[in-house]
Amino acid sequence: MITVKEINKHYGTHHVLKNISLEIEKGEVVVIIGPSGSGKSTFLRCLNYLEQIQDGVIEIEGEPIGLLQQGPKKAEMAQKELNAMREKVGMVFQNFNLFPHKSVLENVILAPLTLGRMKRKESIEVAKELLKKVGLAEKAEAYPDNLSGGQKQRVAIARALAMKPHIMLFDEPTSALDPELVGEVLAVMKELAAEGMTMIIVTHEMGFAKEVADRVVVMDDGRIIEDGPPSIIFSTPRSERTKSFLSKVLAH
């Protein structure tokens, strides 16, 4: 489903991702944890080409997207090809990114309409079903300013799902929420996991990772330092850095 081979990412002289390799199978839920600044969010953004890597290969369903800077011809990806790849990969960010001047329903239908994936009638039907799925059917005509943070994030999830992606990326989806609103967002993500959606999640919610993840990937200083089932990572991690990190986050 997703193959990452020795990718590197630099911001000027700052080496953010260092020879990252990872394989993710269809239907897997992979949770990425690690200290702030370890490269977790950057790695996620590279997976749908919001960030360009300097070298290495990323393949989504067998299609490479990671060699775009190697040679003048490979350096150019047609916009329609890039859009087609992104349609397979939905992403939910920390801060919702909803259009405040559009209703909840309009936010959800915007991408399918703009990219010509659906006619308006079909897109509205799909959007209403998705809003029902995330528990917000009654908020279709509301505007983002009238929603709680948890409701906004659930709308953002519905919006990403409207493109019928094969893979969902979540970049710390609960970090901007008040603690009492976290559960309602995690409940939607648990349902997606139970339905077999391939998911890659950057989060600090360790309880959620233990419950939902098939695998936990630990990053530190731009590298993957540990990768395994949550039962192993949280009980008997091999890396001293993982032990140190978990001792701090699980103490709170």
From TrEMBL:
Xref: InterPro entries: AAA+_ATPase, ABC_ATPase_HisP-typ, ABC_transporter-like_ATP-bd, ABC_transporter-like_CS, MetN_ABC_transporter-like, P-loop_NTPase
Key word Cell membrane present: yes
Keyword Nucleotide-binding: yes
Subcellular location: Cell membrane
Keywords, alphabetical: Amino-acid transport, ATP-binding, Cell membrane, Membrane, Nucleotide-binding, Transport
Membrane topology annotation: Peripheral membrane protein
Listed name of the protein: Amino acid ABC transporter ATP-binding protein
